[in-house]
């Protein structure tokens, strides 16, 4: 295809979406796509479906839809598959998740029922509050990874898809730090054969994906692809990876508000965030070791946006707390409260209260869709390894080890759009605009 700075292979044929974990996010994504395809719903929240991109000067009035500007797969081209520790088909799983009401799910029952999850690679040591019957067995972790690769190959043969993407939508695993076994590919492969405890199931899916030439996006806060061995493998094999932890709900609001406070140089003395939620994700996060993984992901946001080391007086001494409470009556309809203690001119204190009655998976589904379409674009554009330009979608964006992550939602959006402009050989937008005022 005729392009700008890079050659982008056309989005020909079907695109497979392989979902490890067919719970609330996955089924809301699949049901949503099927409803949209039938004209029974709108893909609100999706940049790939609604977003526009300005090209050239403001006076040119050239703002095409992103999906018309870059060659993305269409919704009709998506073919879903996945794995779960429960054997429920997509319809049963969506009913269980309780995000979309049963009457609406009935409209896409047939499409959802056609999706039966494959047996999962799972180990309760890594998600303590879950257990299920639909699980693979194998001699060691390496053999389990091989089984996942066979699943991927069989999916491609069965469906005839030309390309695939794997967004991790499985449960949050226990907190884990980079270990020696994660540092090189050699150590990692040996570790799989020795059943090393620092190699988690999500890492096996990621390994299988990268080995199968399938881009991997990490929707959970797990370590997963955030380790040198898998990053090196992805770069070497020309496979894009990105993560981690879909940015929805409270953290989305934080990365919208904090840049605003900082832009106006208002000080911060405290940010207290608490949530109640009652879905399976909330249940898993009730385990302190899974919660620690989530907490780390949520806490880092403010520090990177406010840069206390540069603004000691305004941001050098704030208290930041994040709490999640599992409260079953709420199901997927989370409620979050933020109390933000700020200070202004002459140090006068002020407070901001945010009470967000959000729907977690309704916010996550368009993020997952955009990641599927953009990761496929990245792959067809020859991009490999960490895709920092997709930071926009994550609570803990992955970036090169010598960089700090960019958390500011507006910088992230600029970066994303500038990457698209770069791919198509369009000029970058600097917002300088002085030339509009120059005399002829
Ligand atoms: N819902 C959101 O808005 C949101 C936002 C950010 C991140 N996330 C993350 O996305 C992930 C999915 O969230 P959800 O709300 O859909 O949770 P969920 O509990 O509804 O679904 C997760 C599914 O993964 C399955 N699973 C667990 N381990 C697995 C494995 N090893 N292999 C295959 N399947 C496995 C579970 O059985 C479950 O069905 C979680 O890690 C969550 O923290 C969700």
Automatic annotation (TrEMBL):
Residue ranges of every copy of the Myo-inositol-1-phosphate synthase GAPDH-like domain listed in the record: 249-361
Signal peptide interval: none
Pfam entry (one): NAD_binding_5
Similarity annotation: Belongs to the myo-inositol 1-phosphate synthase family.
One BP annotation, GO: phospholipid biosynthetic process
Organism: Candidatus Entotheonella gemina
Record InterPro entries: Myo-inos-1-P_Synthase, Myo-inos-1-P_Synthase_GAPDH, NAD(P)-bd_dom_sf
Taxonomic path: Bacteria, Pseudomonadati, Nitrospinota/Tectimicrobiota group, Candidatus Tectimicrobiota, Candidatus Entotheonellia
Domain of life: Bacteria
GO molecular function: inositol-3-phosphate synthase activity
Name of the protein: Inositol-3-phosphate synthase
């Amino acid at each position: 295809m005729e392009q700008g700075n890079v050659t982008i292979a056309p989005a020909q044929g079907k695109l497979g979406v392989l979902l490890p974990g067919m719970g609330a996010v996955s089924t809301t994504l699949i049901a949503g796509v099927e409803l949209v395809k039938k004209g029974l719903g709108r893909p609100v929240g999706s940049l790939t479906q609604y977003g526009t991109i300005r090209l050239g000067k403001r006076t040119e009035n050239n703002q095409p839809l992103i999906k018309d500007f870059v060659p993305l797969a269409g919704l009709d081209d998506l073919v879903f598959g996945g794995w779960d520790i429960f054997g429920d088909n997509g319809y049963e799983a969506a009913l269980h998740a309780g995000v979309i009401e049963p009457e609406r799910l009935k409209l896409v029952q047939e499409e959802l029922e056609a999706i039966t999850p494959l047996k999962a690679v799972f180990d309760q040591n890594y998600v303590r509050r879950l257990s299920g019957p639909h699980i693979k067995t194998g001699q060691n972790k390496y053999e389990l990874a091989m089984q996942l690769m066979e699943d991927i190959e069989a999916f491609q043969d069965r469906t005839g898809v030309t390309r695939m993407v794997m967004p991790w939508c499985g449960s949050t695993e226990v907190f884990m730090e980079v270990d020696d076994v994660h540092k090189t590919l050699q150590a990692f492969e040996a570790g799989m054969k020795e059943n090393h405890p620092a190699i988690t199931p999500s890492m096996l899916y990621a390994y299988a994906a990268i080995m199968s030439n399938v881009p991997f996006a990490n929707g959970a806060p797990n370590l997963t692809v955030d380790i040198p061995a898998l990053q090196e493998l992805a770069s070497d094999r020309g496979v894009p990876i990105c993560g981690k932890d879909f940015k929805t709900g409270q953290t989305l609001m934080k990365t919208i508000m904090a840049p605003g406070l900082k832009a106006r140089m208002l000080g911060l003395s405290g940010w207290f965030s608490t949530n109640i939620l009652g879905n399976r994700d909330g249940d898993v996060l009730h385990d302190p070791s899974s919660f620690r993984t989530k907490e780390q992901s949520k806490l880092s946001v403010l520090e990177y946006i406010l840069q206390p080391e540069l603004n000691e007086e305004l941001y050098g001494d704030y208290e930041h707390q994040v709490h999640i409470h599992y409260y079953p009556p709420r199901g997927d309809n989370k409620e979050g409260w933020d109390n933000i203690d700020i200070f202004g001119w002459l140090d006068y204190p002020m407070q901001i209260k945010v009470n967000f009655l959000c729907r977690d998976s309704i916010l996550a589904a368009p993020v997952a869709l955009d990641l599927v379409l953009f990761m496929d674009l990245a792959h067809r554009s020859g991009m490999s390894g960490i895709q920092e330009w997709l930071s926009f979608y994550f609570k803990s964006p992955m970036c090169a080890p010598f960089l700090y992550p960019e958390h500011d939602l507006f910088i992230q959006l600029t970066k994303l759009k500038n990457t698209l402009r770069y791919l198509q050989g369009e000029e970058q937008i600097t917002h300088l605009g002085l030339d509009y005022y120059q005399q002829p």
